[in-house]
Design goal:
The chain is globular. The protein has seven helices and 17 strands. The strands form five sheets. The chain has a seven-stranded antiparallel sheet with strand order 1-13-9-16-7-5-2. A four-stranded antiparallel sheet has the order 8-14-11-12, covered by helices on one side. It has a two-stranded antiparallel sheet with strand order 3-4. The longest helix has 17 residues. It has a single domain, classed as Sandwich (Jelly Rolls), CATH 2.60.120.620. The two termini are 16 Å apart. The chain is of the alpha+beta class. The chain binds 2-oxoglutaric acid and fe (ii) ion (FE2). 2-oxoglutaric acid binds next to β14. Fe (ii) ion binds next to loops.
Length: 302
């Protein structure tokens, strides 16, 4: 891989370590309001039904106030302590995170690049007793998300950088329009920015069978007719099908960084981000990204 320096000794530390007995759900969720552990409860069934409606209609489910204040505070404190280790991005990306292709016309979506300045606190940088990692490792959470998505089984992901990072956006940062490499993303907003930082998305603008470059181009050029805006608040949970919905985070303003946790579950736990994707998003690629680069199930570009 030209341009990608890979250190062969840079091996992931292994799977997450939290067993069910070590995870106290009440450390992050009010089980009276959100009884996600109680499979027979009516409240849980309602939550699942609502999430499915959102996912079906817009590729997006939103559960306000999902996290407890205590969990928000713990995650904000963790992110604050390790934020200076985040690998800042100052990369020009197209929506597919691919290199420029001069064979295409100049205004093709694959040739439309924007500067991404947001940064990730990569998953391998989380603290040993990270609250985010407990949430991520919780089987109850995996089962709940799986029910909401109505696909399954889903798994925690092998990608050592992308499995459960925090995304951080400081004053004037921007996360431009893109598609995700994985099918869906779970987001938990930990801290709002003073201004901006809205999540915008064009639901199901492409499918596994169809790229729909014309529609993507229209959004990139500023068209708003296909765009929806989701105002996330601290503690909100969002489940989002980012592989088919073009999305971005609008520029953030102010001294308070926007911090969002992204616990990422997948249907194929083995395959990780492609090296160029890992480099563009997480600031580095590791041997696992090179070794597991294989043909994907779909033929979409990312
Ligand atoms: O920060 C967000 O709300 C979305 C982040 C995102 O789209 C991504 O990490 O791929
Ligand atoms: Fe994304």
């Amino acid at each position: 891989m030209s341009g990608l320096a890979i250190d062969p000794n840079d091996r992931p530390a292994g799977p997450s370590a939290y067993a069910a007995a070590e995870i106290e759900l009440r450390e992050f969720i009010d089980l009276d309001v959100f009884p996600i552990h109680d499979l027979g409860s009516e409240k849980r069934a309602e939550l699942v039904a609502q999430a499915r409606e959102g996912l079906e209609a817009f590729g997006c489910a939103h559960i306000p106030n999902f996290l407890t204040k205590d969990a928000i505070n713990a995650m904000r404190a963790e992110a604050g302590r390790i934020m200076d280790q985040a690998l800042p991005a100052d990369a020009r990306i197209n929506p597919y995170l691919t290199a420029d292709d001069e064979a295409l016309v100049k205004d093709h979506p694959k040739r439309t690049f924007s500067r991404r300045t947001s940064s990730f606190i990569n998953s391998d940088q989380l603290e040993a007793d990270s609250r985010l990692r407990k949430i991520y490792d919780s089987d109850v959470m995996v089962h709940f998300i799986c029910d909401c998505l109505n696909v399954g089984p889903i798994y925690r992901w092998a990608d050592p950088l992308g499995r459960n990072p925090y995304s951080v956006m400081h004053d004037d940062d921007y996360f431009p329009w893109h598609f995700d490499g994985n099918d869906f993303t779970v987001s938990l907003l930990v801290q709002e920015s003073d201004e901006g930082g809205d999540f915008e998305y064009a639901p199901n603008i492409r499918s596994a069978a169809q790229e729909n470059f014309d529609d993507v181009k229209s959004v990139l050029k500023g068209g708003r007719d296909k765009v929806k805006v989701l105002k996330l608040r601290e503690g909100d949970l969002q489940i989002f099908r980012g592989r088919y919905s073009l999305h971005r985070v609008t520029p953030t303003k102010g001294t308070r960084p926007r911090i969002i946790a992204l616990p990422t579950y997948v249907t194929d736990p083995f395959h990780v981000n492609r090296p160029h994707h890992a480099k563009a998003f997480y600031g580095r690629a590791m041997p696992i990204h090179v070794e597991r680069e294989r043909t994907r199930l779909d033929g979409l570009t990312d």
